[in-house]
Amino acid sequence: MVVMTRTEYHVVPDGDSWKIEQGSTVVGTYDTKQRAVDAGRQVAHGNEPSQLVVHTTDGRIETEYTYRDDPYPPVG
């Protein structure tokens, strides 16, 4: 069985704006959280298998979107 790893994208606050990060790379910066989430969903969906993790203003995880086969929980 081949296990594909997911690319994780995170929507996080950035001062008065919001940004999408993939690892230490900033994918984009947006003036509203909703625009960042919309853009993040497009980016994640276009780079499957992937996951978009949306954070609150204090950094907690608010929700997650997984695209294509979710490798978790692991088989076995």
Task: Tell me about this structure.
The model has no long low-confidence stretch (mean pLDDT 90). The N and C termini lie close together (12 Å). The protein has 76 residues and is α+β, with helices and mostly antiparallel strands. It has a 5-stranded mixed β-sheet with strand order 3-2-1-4-5, covered by helices on one side. It has one helix spanning 33-46, and strands at 7-14, 17-22, 25-30, 50-55, 61-67.
Overview in brief:
Pfam families: DUF2188. The chain has a 5-stranded mixed sheet, covered by helices on one side.
Strand neighbour order, sheet with most strands: 3-2-1-4-5
Largest sheet: 5 strands, mixed
Spell out the helices and strands N to C.
EEEHEE
Low-confidence stretches: none
InterPro entries: DUF2188
Protein name: DUF2188 domain-containing protein
Features:
1 helix, DUF2188 domain-containing protein, 76 residues, DUF2188, alpha+beta, five-stranded mixed beta sheet
Write the layout of secondary structure elements.
Layout: E1 7-14, E2 17-22, E3 25-30, H1 33-46, E4 50-55, E5 61-67
Parallel strand pairs: 1-4
Antiparallel strand pairs: 1-2, 2-3, 4-5
Organism: Micromonospora endophytica
Protein name: DUF2188 domain-containing protein
InterPro entries: DUF2188 (IPR018691)
